[in-house]
Design goal:
The complex is a heterodimer. Chain A has 21 helices and 22 strands. By secondary structure, chain A is of the alpha+beta class. In chain B, the strands form 2 sheets. A 5-stranded mixed β-sheet of chain B has the order 8-1-2-10-9. Chain B has a 5-stranded mixed β-sheet with strand order 3-6-7-5-4. Classes of the chains: A alpha+beta, B mainly beta.
Chain lengths: 648, 145
C-alpha cells in the first residue's frame, strides 16, 4: 500500500520540492547581495523547512536530514541577525544543489548520494555560529513564520447566502440547477447546499427552489453576474452573512509557499502537455466551425438563415474559448529570468568577474511555448555578457569604469510584441574581428565582408563557428551557439538584433511575438499545392512579366523599388512541380531573407488567412525550410515556409 | 500474436496489430512535402492531425517498378504521432505465431518470413520502418534553385 501511495504523490513532491529549492537558491543569492535582511532569510528558512517536511513525509530520510541541517543554519543566522558571508552562501547553495539532486534522484527511483561531507560542513558552520547549542534533535515548527496572519476572522473571504429558483417552465430543472451550482462552486467553496446535490441533479426541487452558502473572494456583483448567464435560473436573494454568524468549518491549510496576502490565488497545476492539447482542441474547433460554415453554403439560401446564425454563435463561442485557452497559456517571463541571478553569480565567480544583474519587466507574459524555447538562449546571452562582455575588475578600473560590471535584462511590452534586451557595459564586440573570423572560416569573401555595414558585421557572430573570443572557456566561446540562439528566437517568430560599441558594451535586442500559435499567412500556389508565407516576412508582391526580368550571370533579377532583387522559383526551391508552360506574367512575393530581400516566383496568390500553427512532428521537422504546418478551413493541410532557411 | 496483413500488389506483408493505430481509406489528395525523398507521398489531415504518409512499396524496394496507387493507409502508432503507410489493400487481421528468419540481405525493415496456410508473408519491423523514413529524409539533399 505504502509504495502505491508514494508513487501517487511522487510527481507532486518532485515538482513542489524543486520549486522550493529554486526559490531558495534565489533567496540565497539575494542574501549575499543584500546581507542578512529579515524577509529574505525568513523566506529561505521557510523553503528549507517545507522541503524538509515534504521529504520526511515521503520517507526520503537523507533528504529530510540534509534540509533539516540547512534549516538549522538558516535559523541560526536569522536569530543572530548576522550577515551571511560569502562562504556560507556557497555552502548553502551547494546544499541546495545537492537537495535538487536528491529530488531528481527520487523522481527516477534512484538512491541519493552521500551527504556526510555537506552535513559535516553545515554542522561545523552552525557550531561556529552557536557554540553553545549542539545540533538539536528536531526543529519546532516555525509557528511564528508559517502561520498566516489571516488565519481567522480578518482574512476569511466573505460568505454569501444565496437563494435560487429554476423557472417553472424549464424542461430540465435538474440540469439548470446543477449548472448554477457548478458555476458558483467555481467562484469559491459551497456549503449547506439544499437540497443535497443528488436531489438537485435529479431535479427534485420544491417549486424549483434551492439554496446554498458560498464562501468566495469575489465581489457580490461578480457573483450576481456569474448567475445571470445561466438560463432559466433566477436569483431570489443574495445576502452577505456577517462574520459573527456560525464560523466556517476550519480548514487547516497545509503550510505552503503560496500563502501571500490574504487572498490565496485560486490556481491549479496543469501539465504543460495538457495545455498544448487544449490549444490543439480549441484550434480544431475553430477549423471545424469553419468547415460547417462551408458545408452550410450548399444549403439553399432560403433555408439557411437559422443555420447561419447558429454557426455565427458557435463561431463566437469557439473563438472565445480559443482566446481563453491562449490566455491560460500565458506565462510570466519571470519563469525564465528567476534563475538568472543564480546563474550570473556562478559564472561571475568562476570567471572572477564582479557583476551586478538587474532584471526589469519580468512580469510581462508570453505564450509558454515561447518561454520554453527561450530558456536556453537567454541563459546563453547572459553567459556571453559576463564571460566575454564584462572585463575583469582590474581591467575595468584601468579604463575608468567602475570595477563592478552591469548586466541588465529589460523586458517590456510594445504593442503586440515583447521586447527583451540583454545589455552589458563590458568591452563590446569588434566588427572587424568578426569580419576576419567569417572570412577565415570561408563563410564570406574578403570583399563581401568589407561591404557589410557595422550592424551586419555584428550579426556575423550568429553564423555557425564564427567567434572572436581569444580564449575558449568552459562557459562560452562566443560563436558556439549564437547561431542556435538566433535560430531559437526565429523559430518562435522573433527577431534578434545586436548593437555594440567597442569599449562601451553590447546590447542584444529580442523582439518576440506574444503567442506563436496564430499567424497571418499569405497563401501562394505552386502547381496544385498551396503554401503559407508568414505575412510578417513579406515585404511586397509584384506581378511582373517573366520575359522582362533582368539577368546577371545565371541569376534573374526583379526590379523592386530602387533595387534589383534575386529571383528564385518557389517550385524549384521546394522541389514540387509548378504550373507548366511559360507564364506571361507571374506574381513575385518579396520576402526578407538572411542576405536581404529576395523575390520568390509563384504561380498564383490565394489571399491571406489567419491560421493556428502546428509544430512539425517527425519526420517533417527534418525538412529544412519548413516552419510549421496548419490545416486550412477546407480541411487541406499546408506547410508554412521558413523563408530565411529556404535559401540556405 | 495478431498481425494486420496487407498487400503491395500481390505481395503480402504483415505488421503486429499492437503497432497499428488504425487503417483509413486513402484520401482524395495528399499535400506534397517539399524537399522530401521520393518515397514520401505527402501529408494528410486525420481528424485535425497532420500525418506523413509514405509509399510503402518505394520505402521497402526503391528499385522495384512503381505500383498502382494504394487504396488504404495503415497508420503506425508512434507514440504521440502517427506514420501512414500507403498499401494496395488490407486483407485483415491474422494470428501469426512463428516468424522465421529474414532472407539473407533483407533490409532491417524485414523482421522475418511467415506462412499463413499456403501464403508467404513478409513480417515487417515497425520501429525499423520509422527509422528508414527518417533516414530517407536525411539523405534527401535539398537542391537550391
Amino acid at each position: 500500500m505504502a509504495s502505491i501511495d508514494i508513487s501517487r504523490y511522487l510527481t507532486l513532491y518532485v515538482s513542489e520540492a524543486q520549486e522550493h529549492l529554486e526559490s531558495l537558491s534565489d533567496n540565497l543569492v539575494k542574501l549575499e547581495q543584500a546581507g542578512s535582511t529579515g524577509e529574505v532569510i525568513d523566506e529561505a528558512f521557510r523553503h528549507a523547512h517545507s522541503v524538509k517536511g515534504m521529504a520526511a513525509s515521503m520517507g526520503f530520510e537523507l533528504t529530510a536530514k540534509l534540509a533539516h541541517r540547512m534549516e538549522d543554519l538558516l535559523d541560526a543566522y536569522r536569530a543572530l541577525k548576522e550577515k551571511v558571508d560569502r562562504a556560507s552562501v556557497d555552502l548553502l547553495l551547494s546544499t541546495t544543489d545537492a537537495l535538487l539532486g536528491h529530488v531528481r534522484a527520487s523522481a527516477e527511483g534512484k538512491d541519493v548520494g552521500d551527504v556526510s561531507a555537506l552535513m559535516g560542513a553545515l554542522e561545523r558552520k552552525l557550531y561556529l555560529l552557536k557554540p553553545d547549542t549542539s545540533p538539536r534533535p528536531s526543529a519546532p515548527p516555525p509557528a511564528s513564520v508559517a502561520a498566516p496572519s489571516a488565519a481567522r476572522g480578518l482574512g476569511l473571504p466573505p460568505r454569501y447566502q444565496i437563494k435560487l429558483k429554476v423557472a417553472a417552465g424549464s424542461a430540465t430543472p435538474g440540469v439548470r440547477a446543477f449548472l448554477a451550482h457548478k458555476r458558483l462552486s467555481g467562484l469559491g467553496n459551497v456549503f449547506d447546499l439544499r437540497p443535497p446535490l443528488d436531489d438537485l441533479k435529479a431535479g427534485r426541487l420544491a417549486d424549483g427552489n434551492f439554496s446554498l452558502e458560498l464562501e468566495s473572494t469575489f465581489h457580490e456583483t461578480e457573483v450576481r453576474a456569474a448567475l445571470k448567464t445561466i438560463a432559466d435560473v433566477e436569483l431570489v436573494s443574495l445576502k452577505v452573512i456577517e462574520p459573527d454568524a456560525p464560523p466556517a468549518p476550519k480548514t487547516v491549510e497545509p503550510e505552503g509557499p503560496r500563502v501571500v496576502g490574504q487572498e490565496p490565488a485560486r490556481t491549479v497545476r496543469v501539465r504543460t502537455e495538457l495545455l498544448d492539447q487544449l490549444l490543439d482542441g480549441a484550434g480544431e474547433l475553430l477549423l471545424a466551425t469553419a468547415r460547417v460554415r462551408e458545408v452550410g453554403k450548399s444549403v439553399p439560401e432560403g433555408a439557411r438563415g437559422v443555420l447561419d446564425s447558429e454557426v455565427d454563435r458557435l463561431n463566437a463561442l469557439v473563438k472565445d474559448l480559443h482566446a481563453k485557452v491562449m490566455k491560460a497559456r500565458m506565462t510570466p517571463i519571470s519563469v525564465m529570468t528567476d534563475r538568472l541571478p543564480r546563474a550570473a553569480r556562478d559564472i561571475a565567480r568562476r570567471r572572477e568577474r564582479d557583476v551586478e544583474l538587474t532584471i526589469t519587466g519580468a512580469e510581462v507574459e508570453l505564450d509558454r511555448a515561447i518561454v520554453d524555447e527561450l530558456n536556453d538562449p537567454l541563459l546563453h546571452l547572459l553567459r556571453n555578457a559576463i564571460d566575454h562582455g564584462i572585463e575583469p575588475p582590474v581591467e575595468r578600473e584601468k579604463q575608468g569604469k567602475p570595477p563592478r560590471g552591469r548586466v541588465q535584462v529589460n523586458v517590456r511590452r510594445e504593442k503586440d510584441r515583447v521586447l527583451l534586451e540583454v545589455e552589458d557595459d563590458g568591452r563590446g564586440m569588434d566588427g572587424d574581428k568578426l569580419r576576419a573570423a567569417a572570412v577565415a572560416r570561408g563563410l564570406l569573401t574578403p570583399e563581401a565582408a568589407q561591404g557589410l555595414s557595422a550592424r551586419e558585421a555584428l550579426m556575423l557572430a550568429c553564423m555557425p563557428g564564427v567567434s572572436t573570443a581569444t580564449d575558449v572557456t568552459d562557459i562560452s566561446g562566443r560563436g558556439v551557439g549564437m547561431d542556435a540562439v538566433k535560430r531559437a528566437i526565429e523559430s518562435v517568430g522573433g527577431t534578434l538584433e545586436i548593437e555594440s560599441q567597442k569599449g562601451k558594451g553590447t546590447r542584444f535586442r529580442l523582439q518576440l511575438p506574444l503567442t506563436v500559435a496564430v499567424v497571418q499567412l499569405l497563401l501562394v500556389a505552386v502547381g496544385d499545392e498551396t503554401f503559407g508565407l508568414p505575412v510578417a516576412k513579406v515585404s511586397g508582391v509584384v506581378e511582373f512579366p517573366e520575359a522582362q526580368l533582368a539577368h546577371s550571370q545565371n541569376a534573374s533579377l526583379l526590379p523592386f523599388g530602387n533595387a534589383l532583387l534575386p529571383v528564385y522559383s518557389l517550385a524549384a526551391l521546394l522541389t514540387v512541380p509548378g504550373d507548366d508552360g511559360v507564364e506571361q506574367t507571374r506574381p513575385y512575393v518579396v520576402v526578407e531573407a538572411e542576405s536581404g530581400k529576395v523575390a520568390l516566383g509563384v504561380d498564383r496568390l490565394q489571399g491571406q488567412e489567419e491560421v493556428v500553427l502546428k509544430a512539425l512532428s517527425r519526420p517533417l521537422d527534418l525538412v529544412p525550410g519548413l516552419a510549421g504546418v496548419t490545416i486550412l478551413g477546407n480541411g487541406r493541410p499546408i506547410f508554412i515556409l521558413d523563408v530565411p532557411r529556404l535559401l540556405v | 500474436m495478431r498481425h494486420v496483413v496487407f498487400r503491395l500488389e500481390k505481395d503480402r506483408f504483415a505488421l503486429p496489430l499492437s503497432a497499428i493505430r488504425e487503417v483509413v481509406v486513402t484520401p482524395a489528395r495528399f499535400s506534397l512535402v517539399p524537399r522530401s525523398p521520393p518515397s514520401v507521398r505527402g501529408i494528410m489531415n486525420l481528424r485535425g492531425r497532420v500525418v506523413t504518409v509514405v509509399e510503402l512499396s518505394l520505402l521497402l524496394r526503391p528499385d522495384h517498378p512503381a505500383i498502382k496507387p494504394g487504396t488504404k493507409v495503415v497508420l503506425l502508432d508512434r507514440g504521440r504521432r502517427e506514420l501512414g503507410l500507403l498499401v494496395t489493400e488490407v486483407d485483415g487481421i491474422e494470428v501469426i505465431e512463428k516468424v522465421g528468419p529474414p532472407p539473407p540481405k533483407a533490409p532491417p525493415t524485414v523482421k522475418g518470413l511467415a506462412r499463413l496456410g499456403a501464403l508467404a508473408i513478409t513480417v515487417l519491423e515497425p520501429e525499423a520502418l520509422d527509422i528508414a523514413v527518417m533516414a530517407s529524409f536525411s539523405r534527401a539533399v535539398p537542391s537550391p534553385r
